[in-house]
Amino acid sequence: MTIIDQFVSGIPYDPELLDDEIDEWYRSDSSLELYQWLGFTEAEYERWITDPKCILDIIMIRKSS
Questions:
Q1: How far is CA 4 from CA 46, 61, in A?
Q2: Confidence label for 44 from pLDDT (cuts 50, 70 and 90)
């Protein structure tokens, strides 16, 4: 389960958890792109890169879907 999936499933959003997951991606030899590793769609990732605060909106939209 990706970190975004975990936030959607009920784990409270914590920027440190997200940062830890990004660090884990850098240390891995995964062939996944960072957005895939984290669980974003490409569009969500592009939005998050330009406005990191929008992650809460992304999580809420996913929860309501």
A1: 15, 12
A2: very high
